[in-house]
Design goal:
Elements (H helix, E strand, L loop, with lengths): L2 H8 L3 H20 L2 E4 L5 E4 L1 E5 L3 H13 L7 E3 L6 H9 L3 E2 L6 H7 L4 E2 L1 H10 L6 H9 L18 H7 L23 H16 L2 E4 L8 H10 L2 E3 L4 E3 L7 H10 L11 E3 L5 E3 L11 E2 L9 H8 L1 H9 L2 E2 L6 E2 L1 H8 L16 H4 L1
Parallel strand pairs: 3-4, 3-7, 4-5, 6-12
Antiparallel strand pairs: 1-2, 8-9, 10-11, 13-14
Helix pairs in contact: 3-11, 12-13
The structure holds iron/sulfur cluster.
The site of iron/sulfur cluster has 10 residues, from helix 9.
Amino acid sequence: MTYDEMRIRQAWPYEVKIAHAKRVAEEFIDKVYAGIEYGGNKGNKYQAHNVHISVGGLDSITLLLFLRKYFPDVEIPAISRSALEDKSIQVIHKQLGVQSIPGAKTKVSILRDYGFPVISKAKAAKIEKLQSLNEKTTFIHAIMTGDMGAQGNFEHSEKIKLPDKWIELFGGLHADHRPDLKCQCAPFKVSAQCCYWLKELPADEWAKAHNSVPFLGLMASEGGQREMGLTKNGCNYFGKETVRSCPFAVFTRQDLLQLALDLDVPVPKIYGEIVRDSDGTLRTTRAQRTGCAMCGFGIHMEKRPHRFDRLREDNLKEWEFWMYRCVTDPETGERYGWGRVLDYLGIEWEGLPGALPGQITLEGVL
Ligand code: SF4
């Protein structure tokens, strides 16, 4: 699919998209039930003749109820790394009989050993390289300037380059590549590896152990890498290493919320309620989207009250642990947490939302 074709599908009427989603799911089930083989690039081959659904927040909870409604006779186990989700999402998972699978590592060990997931997956991966002295110089130069060197035919790529504001905050080890900027080193590590250890690897291992491939509740309208992947690979993807179905790929947020209403989906408390504004637009009254609780991806774009504020509201003790002392600084032995990360990125968190900076702090409410 091209981006233009995706836009055309996203403009289809709601009923057409629902019919399309049913067709996508049906084709996937039929093909997998006939038996498929994938893998091979890395030397391993896997068989699959089962399907399952990987469940997280509202989007995939809605997909779960959609599949249960339209394919009642097909066995589609629901699995999740529930422990990573907000408590209110975990409650709904339990209600719906979603099976919780364990992670490959703990979240604390990932923050400590690899670093904090901030900004976005793609940018965190580049920052991780900037924080290392072992990366190839040509790659560092490309990230810091966009100039690709001989390997890239001396082309310039704004896509590969990190925006200057992040280079200034994280490029200190390689400042000589950008003498025009005041590059600093952050007092914490950044990494994009969290999703792999916490979500992707456990789900992958479960799938292989059960000869199964997943349904996912991803939508291209979420943008970023999801849009790119769904546009390039389509709703059903039978790749060399990956096989998956995304029946909601062409949905907008409005379609998803409308379907959640139509299916009477139980909405986890973190989202609030689904309401319709006077212009007909549907929205949730609290979080619009959720990832794992205490994830930094996208936090720099979120208005207050942001996800860290919501955790504070829902569970002060947990919030305090993650903000102040979830990891230990290897150099000073000092305990620190997301508070240090957010301070460095210039994101307010300690004063209550709506307060003037410094006016009301945690000490004031404890
Ligand atoms: S969404 Fe965030 S916290 Fe969750 S696994 Fe991915 S990086 Fe980690």
